[in-house]
Every structure is written in C-alpha cells, then in structure tokens.
Amino acid sequence: MSVIEVSHLTKYYGKSRGIVDVSFKEEEGEIFGFIGPNGAGKSTTIRLLLSLIHPTSGSAKIFGKNVVADGPEIRRDIGYLPSEVFYYEGMKVIDLLKYSASFYDCDCTQRIHELSEIMELELNRRISDLSYGNKKKVGIVQGLLHSPKLLFLDEPTSGLDPLMQRKFFDLIRAENKRGVTVFFSSHILGEVQRLCTRVGIIREGRIVAISDIRTLQKNNYKKVQVTAQGLTATTFKLPGVTNVQMENDTLHFFFKGDINTVVKKIGGLKVTDVTIEEPTLEEIFMHYYE
Amino acid sequence: MNANIYRHEFRARLKSVIIWSLALTAMVMFFFSIFPVFADQAALTNQMLAKFPPALLEAFGINKMDLSTVLGFYSFIFVFAQLFLAIQAGNYGFGLVSIEESEWTADFLLSKPVTRGQVLTSKLLAALTSLLLTDLVISMVSIVAITLFRGTREYNLSILLLLFLSMIILQLFFLGLGLVISLLVKRVRSVTPYSMGLAFGMYVLSAFSGIFGAVKLEYITAFKHLDPAYIVKQGAFDTPLVLINLGVSLIALLVSYWLYIHRDIPAVS
Questions:
Q1: To probe the interface with B, which of A67, A68, A85, A102 has the most B CB atoms within 10 Å?
Q2: Which residues of B touch A43 (CB under 8 A)?
Q3: Which of A8, A183, A278, B88 could form a disulfide with A58 if both were Cys (CB 3.0 to 4.6 A apart)?
Q4: What confidence score (pLDDT) does residue B251 get?
Q5: Domain boundary among A193, A215, A237
C-alpha cells in the first residue's frame, strides 16, 4: 500500500512558485529521500502534506485519505520534525512534551523519558534557554513520542553534532525496522545515501528524477580517470563522455553507455594508472543541477 | 473544542489578566475615592465644568453625566475603564493566532490531530474566559468602591449591572475585530500598536461623534454603541446600537473562521 500518494501537486504563493506538478509515491516501510537545494520546494511539499498550506491544484493522499479533507485523522499517525524548530519559549521542555503528547491517545510518558535519554535532552530546562541543537532534540522527541506510523523529517540533522547525528540515524533506522515509513528531506547527500532506499530529486519546484538509490548510482555514470603519456582532451572523444577535465597527464571524465568502448580505447594506450568507479551521489546530483 | 489547547491558552494569558485586573482595580478605586468630594460640592463642580469648552465636555460625554450622583460619577470613570478593556480585548484578538505565527509555533500546533476550527474555538473560548475574568474582577471592585465611598447616596443596582454586562459585549467586539483584522493583514509583527490604534481610533471617533452631533458616527464606533452616559440616563441599552455591535462581532468571528480554515500558515524562509 502506498503511504504517500502525491499527484500533480502544485502550489503558488501568489505569483511566486512553491512547487509545480509534483507527483510521487512512497510505499509502506520505505525511507524516501527528498533532495534538493534550499528553496527547491522540499518544505513546501511537506507542509502541503501536513495541510499547513493548501494546494493551488493537484491532490495528495496519506494512508489512502485526502490530506485536505481528512487532515486531523491523518495527523494522528504522523510525526513531524520541521527544519526550523520553534516552541513556546516560556515553557519547560517536559511541559512542552506533555502538551504535545496530550493530543494523542497514548500514555507517552515512558517514551518521552526513553527518547530524551537517548538524545541526552534535559527535561527541566526552559525552552528559551536551549541552544539550537538542543531545540532540535526537543523536536526529535516531540516528533517521535507518540510512535507515529509516518515520519516527516525536514532537514533533521542541522544543528546536531556528528555524535548526535549518528544516534539520531540509529533511532530512525530502529523506527523504520518497526515498520515506520520515513520521508526524509535534505540537501546533504551523504546522509540520504546512508539512510534512504529511494530518492526523489527536486529542482526549482519540479521533480527531476525519482529513482532507487542503487540504480541512480549504478545505471548512470561511471567516473573514469586515466593517466598516460600523450593524452589530450580529445583522446576519449566518444559518445557518452562528458565532463572532460585534463590535469597534467591525467584525464578525468564521466561516461555513460557500454563500458567496453572505453576499455578498448584504454587498451590502445600505454597507461600508468586507471580507475573506473561509481560517482558519489554528490556528483550525480551536481549533474542534475547543471 | 480541545481542552488541552484551551488550558494552554488560558495559562499563557493568566499573567496578563492579573496585570490588567490590578491596573483597572487601582484606577477604579483611586477615582471613586474622590467621589465624596465631588458629590458634596456639586454646585462648585458644575460651576467649574461650565467654564470648560462645551466641545470638550461633549467629547467626553460629561455634559450628559451628573457627577454628583453615584452612577453619574461611576459612568465618568467607566468611560476610561472601557478604553482599557478595549485595548486588552484588542490585544487578545490581534494576538490570538498571529503570535503563534510570528513566533513560528503554529507549525507545532497545526501538525497535531486537530482541525483549524477546533484550534480557533479553543483559543477564542480561552480568550473569552480571560476577558470575563477581568470583567468579573472590575465588577466586584466597583461594587466595593461604591459601597465604601457612596456614603448615604442611593443608586440603582440594575443599571450598574447593565454597565457590567456592557463590558463583555464591548470586549467581544474588540476581540472579534482584532482577530479578523489580524487575519486580513499580511502579517502582524507586534500586537500592541494594532490594538492601541484600533481602541484609540474608535475612542476618538466616539469623541468626535459627540462634537459633530449631526454626523452619524455612533453607528461605527463601539464606544457609542455602549455609551455609559446613555445607559445611566435611560436605564437601558440603546438596543439598535447594541444589536449593531453584536452583529459586527458575529460577522467578524464568522469571517475569521473562514479565513483561518483557508489560511496558508507562513513558514520561515
């Protein structure tokens, strides 16, 4: 069953673009990465799904229900960690978490303490006294305390130190093992690569590609590096070769197509070094943005 | 209605309610404590007032009040109390949803399993409770002040109760109008300038309405709808004007619900 089903979702803020004609599906139990630079429309998409804003056209379903009409019912099983966390400044952490828990039919006290212990969050401090990283931790606990079935994480790692990031990822993986579906928006590709099974790439409000993370890496480009004497920038002038860069005696380029043609060409040279590797997601990503 | 939101909202405003109540208590007590002097020297007072420019007396409605009677003098104080109550109600109205948006906590609240309608109803009821509480304190303090300082002078209790009732009607008006304006403008960054502007603006209109007697400004200013001088003199509300007032409040609230339910919650960008 598709947990999230978005079809032709479009949002304009007056005349300025939010997202245009976005369609995708996320299956139950998936960790779906949503990548794009700032302002591409990641947060807009999430906020539309949470019914914080209303679509200009198109529609979206979560758990098979319309997000506009059945919002409150859907949100019972959703956890949301916004990219910028803001809470009632005068409240204590524990009071805020209890307020948050009071909206769900559960006794979440134990879960609050478990999660705060993992994230090393002090419950008796005032929200106004917390650093950005600590507020983010409040956000994480707040998003998970009611054991939601679907998690929206909007750039969740900003402000967390590497150690906390790791703990957070472990937490998300554990939740995912329990069957929780995760929608993970980020502009940091490394973390998406570590966590997600499938990714959608969004650019200027439009989906550019949706793909399995492995296919994205494998069936796409190879990164080739050849060191040999007498190389010129045109030595590998084959169809499918892009991004040619010459550096001393070394030639770097991307190749897409039958790798044998490149290997044959290399065979005719007297090479000192050759590497053929999968590009990182970063490099694939840059390619989409050129 | 959602009891959690109601409780949270009520608590958030409790301090403000206490401060407003204390300020108004001090004002009522202080001003009414000089009533015996005014009443004893009514002739002198009237002589002094006669020297004031008539337009000024008209503006404050003093020419319609008999400062030597309990309710006449009380209605003179009540005009100022109304101004404070209007600012308080305006504050709550303008801030009802806009504070959540300017402090970006709206995302937290509205991503919970509640409808926008439930959120607004809970917030409105919490604000209304806070306002009623303030009115109740003022009413009790007023009775205490009158009992302490009236001496042997009599007054009509049912007219006094009518004045007390007018407080919540006036506050509902400023609550509703503040809310609907806050939803119509693009963004409210700070609540106080708006509520002060609205309250003083209406107050000035009401004063002018007294000066240019012929112009029908009383239709648009809430202070004229619930003019204490009129209530004390006639012993009743000016029913058509009070109905206009309640009608405006009702429309403001209905429009607010529609706007809030269809609203795009602004995000940090």
A1: A102
A2: 267
A3: A8
A4: 97
A5: A215
The per-residue pLDDT for range A257-276, each reduced to its tens digit, is: 788 888 888 888 888 889 88
Total domains in chain A come to 3
**pTM score, whole prediction:** 0.86
Q: Which of B9, B99, B112, B123 to mutate to probe the A interface, most A CBs <10 Å?
A: B112
Are A53 and A156 found together in one domain? yes
Length in residues, chain A: 290
In a domain, B108, yes or no: yes
CB atoms within 10 A of CB A85: 26
pLDDT value for A287? 67
Cα torsion angle, A17, A18, A21, A22, sign: positive
Does some domain include residue A84? no
Contact B113 A52 (CB under 8 A): no
* Structural domain containing residue A136: 90-146
Judged by CB atoms closer than 8 Å, whether chains meet at B113 and A73 is answered as: yes
Place of tokens 């917390």: A130
Task: Examine the domain organization and report whether A128 and A272 are in the same domain.
Answer: no
Residue B160, judged by CB atoms within 10 A of its CB (0-12, 13-18, 19+), counts as buried
Closest Cβ opposite residue B107 in set A52, A74, A89: A52
Partners of residue A145 in chain B, C-beta under 8 Å: none
Residues A132 and A181 in one domain: no
For residues A277 and A197, state if they share a domain. Answer: no
- Residue A246 has a pLDDT of 84
Counting residues of chain B whose pLDDT is more than 70, the rounded percentage is 96
Encode burial over A132-152: b for 16+ CB neighbours within 10 A, e otherwise: eebbbbbbbbbbbbbebbbbb
pLDDT top residue among B120 and A228: B120
Strands A65-66 and A16-27: unpaired
Look at chain B and report how many structural domains it folds into: 1
A228 & A131 share domain: no
**In-domain check, residue A240:** yes
Q: Which residues of chain B have a CB within 8 Å of the CB of A140? A: none
Contact by Cβ (8 Å): B179, B79: no
Residue B268 inside a domain? The answer is no
Helix axis angle for B3-33 and B70-102, nearest 10°, is: 150
B261 neighbourhood in chain A, CB within 8 Å: none
Domain that holds residue B55: 3-261
Is B72 among the domain residues?
yes
pLDDT at B239 over 80: yes
Amino acid B129 reads T
Whether residue A138 sits in one domain with residue A160: no
Q: Which residues pair with A4 in a beta bridge?
A: A26, A62
Residues of chain A with pLDDT below 70 are: 216-220, 280-282, 284-290
Answer yes or no: do A124 and A247 share one domain: no
**ipTM of model:** 0.85
**Nearest-neighbour CA in chain A from B268: distance (Å):** 7
CA distance B176 to chain A (A): 23
- Asked if the structure places residue A159 within a domain, the reply is yes
- A66 in contact with chain B, both atoms CB, cutoff 8 A: no
- Asked if residue B146 is part of any domain, the answer here is yes
